[in-house]
Amino acid sequence: MYFNLPRVSVLLSLVTVCVVAHAQAPQPQVAGRVVRSDDGVPIEGAEVELVRVWAVSSNGRYPTAITDKNGEYQFVESVKPDAYPIRASAEGFVWENYTRDGAVEGRLQQIDLTTQLHGIDFRLKREAVIRGVLTDAKGKPREAGISVAAVRKEQGEKGAFRLHAVNWVKTDASGRFVLKKLESGTYFVCVNGPNGLNAFPNAGVWYRETWYGNVGSAEDAKALMLKGGEEQNDIHITVEQEQRYRVIVWPSGPEDQPNPDRYSVSIEGRSHTSTQEADGSYVIPGIPPGRYKLVSLAWLGAEYQGEGDITFDVINVDVTLHLRVGGLGEIQGVVKSGDTQAKVPLMIGIESDEGAAQGSDVDAAGHFMFSRVLPGAYVFKLLKNPAGVVLRSVTCGGEVVTPNTPLKMRDREKVKDCEAVLGH
């Protein structure tokens, strides 16, 4: 048998190099596939991002991988250890956030140097698009920089509907706008809203919140029903200039408490900014005429010290409010049940309409206590209880507490006679 030794040596060297190179090829930390949701066809050029503001890569973007012709992607370069939401998008499709089980907690994926998350797949839906133009009363296009939002009405926990801005953009120099990345559904288009969301003055000029249909509220607005892949073009909305005003707040208090290091100020039902001035006041700009309720919280470090609110009107001038912030109260009571197994472990909670909430463990004697309670109207609920145990009723001061008749706590009030009855 005849051997060409130089040729065999070269072949063996190439095989060795290939084997070593293959053995040293890094395994991707995250990998998967992106396809269309309607027919499963791979999407080439889709972007998959590891979304974390503090994990921006050297080029100023989130860590990103691009899919190939088979719809496959992988993150080969080392990714900074962190918990990441992972999302994918492509031109003509809606963003999709990966989740393990459909729960909010399943959106965060823990990634470190040893992580190998494979099979992180996405099925993207075709986007719906809304295009339109903003004009004045004579049909002349408005200028650039006016905010336009695609809004959906969503039913809340208590049956009331809330307005959710799905996407928003600014108009171009011809007053035109394009709202993309919309899923199938019913939409309402709003200028400078809803409720002041992403509203900005243009060269010092404010435009009135206006909905498609040239109306001032979502209740009267025209609805747009769109399916994936559909486009609604030539939406015309007539917008008018309006005068808006500043709300200047001077909070103080609470009494008999350490001096707060700051206050938060917010107008209920509106999206807005606020700034603290050197003289100690807080200024909220861009509020249109109307009746409002302002709420202020006093803070000392990470703990709140008290709360106050005031109702006021904006008419045709800036408004100055002097608001005294009330102190904290206390709620005490006892849990009663004929079943000793229902007494421990238990945790009972209180929650106000404004979102203030606390939890208290119930001790072996059935007692609970809530300290540092803000003024407001509260209802009770069980937070931790044996299976099958429910909160039958609560009375405080001899009055039944329900969502329709909550416990109303005043400034620094102490309620010590609440009684919670459990049952099955």
Q: What is the helical fraction, as a range of percent?
A: under 10%
CATH class of the largest domain: Mainly Beta
General form: globular
Query: What is the count of distinct domains?
Result: 4
Strand content: over 45%
At the fold tier of CATH, the topology name of the largest domain is Immunoglobulin-like
The number of helical runs is 1
| Helix/strand class | mainly beta
Tell me about the biggest sheet? 5 strands, antiparallel
Parts with pLDDT < 50 across at least 5 consecutive residues: 17-23
Counted beta strands? 34
Structure, described:
The chain is mostly beta strands. The chain folds into 4 domains: 8-124, Carboxypeptidase-like, regulatory domain (Immunoglobulin-like); 128-242, Sandwich (Immunoglobulin-like), CATH 2.60.40.1120; 245-324, Immunoglobulin-like (Sandwich); 329-423, Sandwich (Immunoglobulin-like), CATH 2.60.40. It has 1 helix and 34 strands. The chain has one helix at 5-24; strands spanning 30-36, 47-50, 64-66, 72-75, 82-89, 96-97, 108-111, 122-124, 128-135, 147-155, 161-170, 176-182, 185-191, 206-207, 210-211, 224-226, 231-238, 241-242, 245-252, 262-267, 275-276, 282-287, 290-300, 303-314, 319-324, 329-336, 347-352, 357-361, 367-373, 376-384, 390-396, 399-400, 407-409, 414-423. Strand 27 (347-352) and strand 28 form a beta hairpin. It is globular, with a radius of gyration of 29 Å. The protein starts with a helix and ends with a strand. Residues 17-23 have low confidence and may be disordered.
